[in-house]
Amino acid sequence: MDKQEFTQRVLALEPRLYRISHGILQNTQDQLDAVQESLFKAWTGLSRLRNEAYFETWLTRILIHECQDLLKRRKKNICLDLIPEPSAPPEGANQFLYHALMQLPLKLRLPLTLSYMEGYRQREIAHLLHIPEGTVKSRILKAKSELKKLLEPEKEG
Amino acid sequence: MRQYDWKHAYGQPPSEFHQGLCQTLRTLSEQELSEQEQVSGSHAKSLLLIAILILALLAGVAFAVNQLNLLKYLYEDQPPVEDSSAILTNFDTTVSNDMLTVSVEEALFDGKGLILTIRYRLNDAQHYYFGESFVSEGAEHPMPNATALYPWPPSVLINGSEYGKSWTWTIEPDGSMLYYAGVLVSLPKGTQSIDVTINNHLGGELNLENMNLVLHVRTSLRHATVLPVESEQCERFAIASAQLTLNSVLSYLDVEYSYQQASAGEEMGIVIWVYDANGARIEEVNLSSEICRSLENGNFLSTISLPYFKELPETLYLEAKVIGDAVTLGRIECQVIPWESDEPLN
Q1: Smallest CA–CA separation between A11 and chain B, in Å?
Q2: Within the 34-93 window of chain A, which residues sit less than 8 Å (CB to CB) from chain B?
Q3: A/B interface, count of CB pairs below 8 Å
Q4: Do B140 and A82 touch (CB under 8 A)?
Q5: Residue B39 needs a FRET pair 20 to 30 A away by CA distance; which of A42, A134, B82, B119 works?
Q6: Is B13 in contact with A25 (Cβ distance < 8 A)?
Q7: Which of A31, A32, A87 to mutate to test the interface with B (most CBs of B within 10 A)?
Q8: Residues A33-68: pLDDT tens digits?
């Protein structure tokens, strides 16, 4: 894969990179940092990618790792009592859905994001997150259940 | 559940996200990476800087162990180090503007790794504080009538190139921000000094001048050959050669290996974990991502940063694991044989 193809394939993935990084990190600068570091690692590690057909999934997994790593590093330095409320919904977002998603814990939000927004199958999500397929299934079910409760007021309104 | 437009639950990527992505891609493209070396720009920032260069001098000042923030970065808790003053460089280099004063405080450079601590101190701590700087879920310090500032992380260039780095920060009790950066470098053998540029493009009114440092190797390294026991070869992973390099603070393990990918999957390759003679994993220190690059002979060369060894182990186990899967290709027992001179064993 040459630089031009790399660039084109990354740009085609931009919405996914944004959604996944946003699903884990709510600050745009953080998302950018994670994406930039992921692109750097992907570009310098291309020789490890034996089958370029896997590029999109491969980059997605690098990004998830990078976001989780960034989050982990932050949490080492953070007093949990001081974590601020989630930021305002980005432009064009469904406000109800956005706020409901942001209220879900990350371990539920991330599988749901990968399933509903990115269309990954449960087996693929298990592969991406290094968790058993059964755990993915139960987390998605739990996430849907939680989300349903959170979205009820909207329906009633 | 499916009546929602899930694809737009988070809205569209904001323009700064798109611009940052494009800037990163441009930066990558400007690098000569055809050989897949670990040299590139990972944090692309626009370079609208006041270009005044500050020359920093080294001052080899020994200081007490409780001042070694840099070691806290590496080890978090109690550093397993007895006397590290000889390897560390202490600075009193600062730049400032109306808002901030920035000081490089500590540095470690041994020819293979670079670690820096940089302190950002607010000039007017009554009216400003560091808010969720660098982070999405950062610490807030609610203060009435005070304004939160949100600096971007600085970037660190070595001999003009930006390497992949590990970094973190803490808000200190006095309100200053202590930034840590760790980099594994790939330099020509025998390199004794490097030019380091700290790009203090922190955003808007926080922008500061670059800081330029010259760092010299301040320590001699010990070496050991890590020799696989012949009967322990794995089916698809083999160690061609391995070498342990040690200083008084941390260690590096260079492993040249061959690896045959499975017919399906394993698209991310493998990672090497290190275990001691009792089978306990030796966790990597918080320096930087493992460097791995492909060699002309088809092998791969990985550099792994490990903790300080007070006594050289006699045995290490290297385990090849498929990235992203719970698949282990095998664990190879290795003898650790110290060099008697500066030359490797053959």
Answers
A1: 8
A2: 35-37, 39-41, 43-51, 54, 57-58, 61-62, 71, 73-79, 82-84, 87, 89-93
A3: 196
A4: yes
A5: B119
A6: no
A7: A32
A8: 889 888 988 888 787 676 777 788 888 888 988 888
Whether the model clears a pTM of 0.80, i.e. scores above it, the answer is: no
Q: How far apart are CA B122 and CA A79, in angstroms?
A: 21
Burial B98-107 (b: 16+ CB within 10 A, else e): ebbebbbbbb
- The pLDDT value recorded for residue A129 is 79
Q: Collapsing DSSP states into helix, strand and coil, what is residue A24?
A: helix
| Contact residues, chain B, for A97 at CB < 8 Å | 4, 6, 9
> What sign does the CA torsion over A153, A154, A157, B2 have?
negative
Residue among A17, A29, A78 minimizing CB distance to B152: A29
Contact B168 A23 (CB under 8 A): no
| In the block, residue with structure tokens 């320096």 | B287
pLDDT tens-digit readout, B142-171: 455 667 676 777 888 889 887 766 777 777
Q: Which of B28, B169, B326 sits opposite A39 (nearest CB)?
A: B28
